[in-house]
Amino acid sequence: MPPEYTLREAHPTERAVGIDYYVSGADGIGGRLRESPEDFRVRELEAFDAAPLDAETGSYPELVVRATLRDWDTNDFARRLSDALQISRERVSWAGTKDKRAVTTQLFTVRGVDADDLPEIRGAEIEALGRAGRGLAFGDLAGNAFDIRVADAVDEAPDRVVDAVRDLRAFAGDAGPPEADAGEFPIDATVGVPNYFGQQRFGSRRPVTHLVGLAIARRDPREAVRLYAGNPAETEPDDTRAARDRVDAAFGAGGDSDSDDADRAADGTGDGDWAACLDAIPGKLRFERSMVHRLADRDVDPDVPPDGDDWWHALEAVPSNLQRLFVNAAQSSLFNRIASERLRRGLPFDRPVAGDVVCFADGDAPDELYAPDADRLQRVDADRVDVVSRHCERGRAFVTAPLVGTETRLGEGEPGEIERAVLSEAGIEPSDFSLPGEFDSKGTRRAILLRTDLEASFADGDPRFAFALPSGSYATVLLREFTKRGPLDL
Fold first, then answer.
1. Which tens digits make up the pLDDT trace of 321-372?
2. How far apart are the two ends of the chain, measured CA to CA in Å?
3. What's the rounded Cα separation, in Å, for the pair 257 and 244?
4. Can you state the angle between helices 157-171 and 475-483, rounded to 10 degrees?
5. 85 vs 119: CA distance, rounded Å
6. Which ranges in 346-393 belong to alpha helices (H)?
7. Nearest-angstrom CA–CA distance, 395 and 373
8. Going by C-beta distance under 8 Å and a sequence separation of 6 or more, which residues neighbour residue 380?
9. Would you tell me which of 146, 195, 198, 275 could form a disulfide with 476, CB atoms 3.0–4.6 Å apart?
10. What is the pTM of this model?
11. Bridge pairing between strands 103-111 and 40-46
């Protein structure tokens, strides 16, 4: 069936990670994000309770603090905080990682520290809130509230914002008029977009993590190492490209740096000169150097079988969280492709068709979030479509697509056909994610519609967007529908 909404082809960089379309046909407002940190404000919506500050430290060893950070990467701030307190970095925990070029408000827990010990740090406002019996973890983050300014938008931005909001309201299943009259600001509206994984999931300038993960799932750790340590991108500096070309030569990857990935796959005919690779790889590529060091230490022949232990050993030189990210990125790219194919075929996102798998809403989430609970799944048979559609309309249920793993439940009917076709094209089966160590994944499912209550306004001629998203969703996935710019242009 034809789509019920306008499809517009996405930027080539996005299509490389499975983001094939915009669902708004409105022309873009252009502009730039993060002209200053204050233009991108993020406030965590927490799902974490703290005991009073005077709680007994034996039972509550963690100090809970709220930090408002300007121009701080989360990992860098945690390192600076631990250094100032003269404690191990492992004693600092948080629920969600935030980008540097922003003003972010988020929780941290610090083990074995008192409120009076907290230091003053440039660009950070730190407030002690209470104590906890454990450190923060990813599941303690319910979502994020955003307030984002787009600088240097086109003169026609007000009309284009109105047009885009109209399209996104229809995509969310609400085709009625906005609360404000067309053209009047602020506009308050419930909008929806495909719940794509954003470009930063894969690497904005060098989208490669998903390719590494797909090679891992195909039991080809040799190619996974080559893709990460070699495989230059046009957007990289000359010295980095030269180093990666040298790594490709050691693996025996054919073609040149402008060839596509299939032409450059490792074939085992390289010179295996890992020492020369280490001489070429700059120190800033520390994870790449770690992988190649392991190959050099074992004097690995590039002709060793591609699934050999030496390649797994090299791949495991990177931190465990990056190992997991490789596989997660592969799952994310497959999810994006499934969502794009559903769009192409014109299947709805705001309600199910027969064969879909839905999840129900998270009843514990803050009221400002449309938050799914992927642990509560139900397949939709033909005789249940109307009933479940009403649940979706009321925000009580969400249509899902798979993040494929060993225990993933695939759909039936046309949704299942799409899921299986995308996996087949990628040469992947759910059982392929039965992998060693940190690479293993049981999989899950994820809502395909990202719905939010959006406020669009103008301040000094620049558009501002305020909205809240559940944890794991991307603000840029919503903003791209307004800007219509490529990831590297923002």
1. 899 999 999 999 999 999 999 999 999 999 999 999 999 999 999 989 999 9
2. 34
3. 9
4. 130
5. 7
6. 385-393
7. 12
8. 352, 353, 354, 355, 356, 357, 358, 388
9. 198
10. 0.93
11. parallel
Under the phi-then-psi rule, with left for phi > 0, alpha for psi from -120 to 50, and beta for the rest, what region is 327?
A: alpha
Name residue 54's beta-bridge partners: none
From residue 229, alpha-carbon distances to 211, 262, 419 in Å are 12, 16, 31
* Element containing residue 422 per DSSP (H, E): helix 413-426
Active-site residues, by number, are: 99
**C-alpha 220: how far from its chain's center?**
24
**Residue pair 439/405 in contact by the 8 Å Cβ criterion:** no
What tokens appear for 16 in the block?
């490389």
Express each pLDDT in 175-188 by its tens digit: 555 554 455 789 99
What is the rounded distance in angstroms from the CA atom of residue 152 to the CA atom of residue 146? 19
Q: Encode burial over 174-205: b for 16+ CB neighbours within 10 A, e otherwise.
A: beeebebeeeebebebbbbbbbbbbbebbbbe
> Beta strands 444-447 and 397-403: pairing type?
antiparallel
Distance CA 388, CA 487 (A): 36
Q: Which helix (H) or strand (E) holds 343?
A: helix 320-345
Read off the DSSP letter of residue 51.
B
Reading the block at residue 304, the tokens are 């060793």
Q: Tens digit of pLDDT for each residue in 404-420? A: 999 998 999 999 999 99
Contacts of 450 (CB under 8 A, 6+ apart): 192, 193, 194, 195, 469, 473, 477, 478
- Rounded distance, CA 197 to CA 325, Å? 13
Q: Are strands 62-70 and 124-132 parallel, antiparallel or unpaired?
A: antiparallel
Cα 101 vs. chain centroid, distance in angstroms? 17
Q: In what order do the strands lie in the sheet with 397-403?
A: 372-379, 357-361, 397-403, 444-447
The span from the CA of 146 to the CA of 41, in Å, is 6
Q: 295 - beta bridge partners?
A: none
Reading the block at residue 205, the tokens are: 């300038």
C-alpha distance from residue 446 to each of 81, 191, 307, 359, 385 (Å) = 35, 18, 31, 8, 19
- In 37-82, beta strands by DSSP E: 40-46, 62-70
